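Sharing in case it's useful to others searching the archive later.

Someone asked me privately for the predicted structure of Nucleoside triphosphate pyrophosphohydrolase, so I'm posting the question and my answer publicly. Question first, with the sequence:
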Amino acid sequence: MNATSPEAAQDPGRVVLLTTSHRVAPGLLSWPAWQALRSADRVLCADGAHPQVPYLREAGVTVDRAAPTAEELLDACAGGRTVVVVATGEGEPALTDGLARLAGSGRVRMPELELLPASYDLPGARLLDLVQVMDRIRAECPWSSQQTHKGLAKYGIEEAYELVEAIEEGDRDGLREELGDVLLQVVFHARIAEEDPEAPFSVDDVAGTIVTKLIHRHPHVFGDATATTPEEVKEHWLRTKAVEKQRASVTEGVPLGQPALALAAKLASRARTAALDVPLPDGEGIGYALLALAAEAEAQGVDPEAALRAAARAYRDAILAAERD
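And my answer, the predicted structure tokens:
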């Protein structure tokens, strides 16, 4: 048997802290992670229920359930050994703090330390968390479990208005929060839809539908068409949308329940886009005057709803100033 050289005996070894994402299917690890696991002298994991452990063992990697202290980990690495620690979902704060304390003391020779991300979250990965949270709330919350599409409809409108308000006020923190509230409405409705006995669909179906629509309506991005200006993009969108919908009238798909100024502007936009020369109805009263103003605003590229809200905010500020005087 070969004797261990003094140099090898003094080698403090190597510690690899392996982190994984619970949002990625277990076993789908990076190649450097598999190399580290297979070449390690020991693989440790404090969580016996860690989702990666069964797959590592199936691949022939021996995983010991252990939660070593920093001192114990240094002993395990002594003599040039490599120890891989499969981190739990919360990370290993006690272990890393202990290693930092030992390194800062200057009294021990530290092993080589490496943080190795074994799997990564792709953009949008936190949406998986939202779906899981919504599943649990729907199952366990007395209020949420009783909600219906119809009962939630008013909240969708309210959240959309609050989002618009955050945008118009330039409130970045509010914008982030209100986008989340709008997203919650989408996920909530999709979760309710899964329970429909006749025509169920899931949030994946919702996402799949909009992905298909976006790809189809952007042939200049995903196909052979070309578009170099916003106007050409809009032409592509309207042309493909018309083919998809096969509408008998340009007024189809315009929700009559939306705010009146927005409704008037939308109808004027549809008529103008279709090159229909339709005179405004000749009537008396404020309603017809507002209709004319909404049509004029749309023709000038002005959102009448936004314009009126801006004026209303100025009026509110004037009221507040009068109240302070």
